[in-house]
Amino acid sequence: MNALLTAEEGAGITIDEEVIEKHSNAAFFSYSGSAPLPLNRRFDWPLINFNEHNIREGFHALFALVKYRGSERADEIAKAASHFY
């Protein structure tokens, strides 16, 4: 997400909004578990798997959504996650 939106702004290219929406939904879904952590799962399983690397990836996505799209939802999730840690 961060790379896509940075490239869009920096190179002046247009990223299909459907692509951004799909990536946004995936990021938001990863934070929808019982704790404000970016979790993952196996197909059709609940969000239960935690991997430290996903903290970085999750914050990259949230940062980009706040910076380039003004996403209040991403901002709220990022704040909740940073207070949780």
Verbal overview:
With 85 residues, this protein is mainly alpha-helical. It has one domain. Helices cover 64% and strands 5% of the residues. It is built from four helices and two strands; from the N terminus they run ααββαα. Strands 1-2 form a two-stranded antiparallel sheet. Helix 2 packs across helix 3. The two termini are 22 Å apart. The model has no long low-confidence stretch (mean pLDDT 92).
Mean pLDDT: 92
Taking all Cα atoms into account, the compactness measure Rg is 13 Å
Tally of distinct domains = 1
- Shape type: globular
Instruction: Please state how the strands of the largest beta sheet are arranged side by side.
Output: 1-2
Q: Assess the beta-strand content as a share of residues.
A: under 5%
Major sheet attributes: 2 strands, antiparallel
Order of helices and strands: HHEEHH
Low-confidence segments: none
Helix content: 55-70%
- Report, as a whole number of angstroms, the end-to-end distance: 22 Å
**Helical element count?**
4
The total of beta strands comes to 2
Structural class: mainly alpha
Please describe the topology of this protein.
Layout: H1 2-11, H2 17-30, E1 39-40, E2 49-50, H3 53-69, H4 72-84
Antiparallel strand pairs: 1-2
Features:
two-stranded antiparallel ribbon; mainly alpha; 2 strands; 85 residues; globular
